[in-house]
Amino acid sequence: MQSSAIAWEQVSKHYAGTTAVDDVTLSIAPGSFVALVGASGSGKSTLLKMVNRLVEPSAGRVTIDGADVAAGPAPALRRRIGYVFQNIGLFPHLSVAENIAIGPRLASDPPADVGGLLERVELPRALATRMPAELSGGQRQRVGLARALAPGAKLLLLDEAFGALDPVTRDALGQRLRGLHDELGLTTVLVTHDMAEALLLATRVVVMAAGRVVADETPAALLHGAGGPEAQALVGVPRAQAERLAGMTV
Ligand SMILES: Nc1ncnc2c1ncn2[C@@H]1O[C@H](COP(=O)(O)OP(=O)(O)OP(=O)(O)O)[C@@H](O)[C@H]1O
What we know:
Blueprint: E1 6-15, E2 18-28, E3 33-38, H1 44-49, E4 59-64, E5 67-68, H2 74-79, E6 81-85, H3 96-106, H4 114-120, H5 137-149, E7 155-159, H6 167-184, E8 187-191, H7 195-201, E9 204-209, E10 212-217, H8 219-223, H9 228-247
Parallel strand pairs: 3-8, 3-9, 6-7, 7-8
Antiparallel strand pairs: 1-2, 1-4, 4-5, 9-10
Helix pairs in contact: 3-5, 4-5
The structure holds adenosine-5'-triphosphate.
């Protein structure tokens, strides 16, 4: 049997009056790039946050490389996992370089290669001395990505990481992310509202609805009509847009 980088085993999360995640069993192979898509409130973020224990499951367990994430202290777990979310929350009083280097510094690990990381996320090395307020939104997200990679994490979780960016920046950063995934041999889980982004970047697309996994397909299979009605409704949005654009005359 193939080992799992991440596995959710019969995982549920209940809040008063809401079941955010409902008995999900899902396994992600090392090296895969999985997009988690689904309507707002379908449970994507909750499922993701159970991996780095920002949310604790009500039932079931989550494992990384076969080990229960609940077994050790959460800070040690989080150091092994890169996490990027919308409006990344760089420390405003620290420079770009200090933001990128903070993980290894707090863990007393060898210092981060700030220049090399800036290059990996396609930012000029000269930006190292800037403060976060002196960056564009896209540059800030790139610094966030560099910070997430600084501790040498092989697991990268992204929660609507590109949500607040303009479409051109979003597309470029998505492609860079896929490049980094391939170059560094990462296992990547990307929560996104955008099915086109999921289809273009991921090796596997998991669709959630009402706390459950309702489809789990490759992009090619989804584009060939697999996955059921919820998945196809999401695939239909970018497809219909592309058809409308193709049909426009100038
Ligand atoms: N801390 C919380 N307390 C109560 N309910 C919560 C909490 N966090 C999430 N929920 C509820 O759980 C459900 C799933 O939320 P979740 O954020 O996982 O969905 P999502 O698919 O990521 O949504 P979105 O795409 O809008 O970010 C929603 O109904 C949400 O209101």
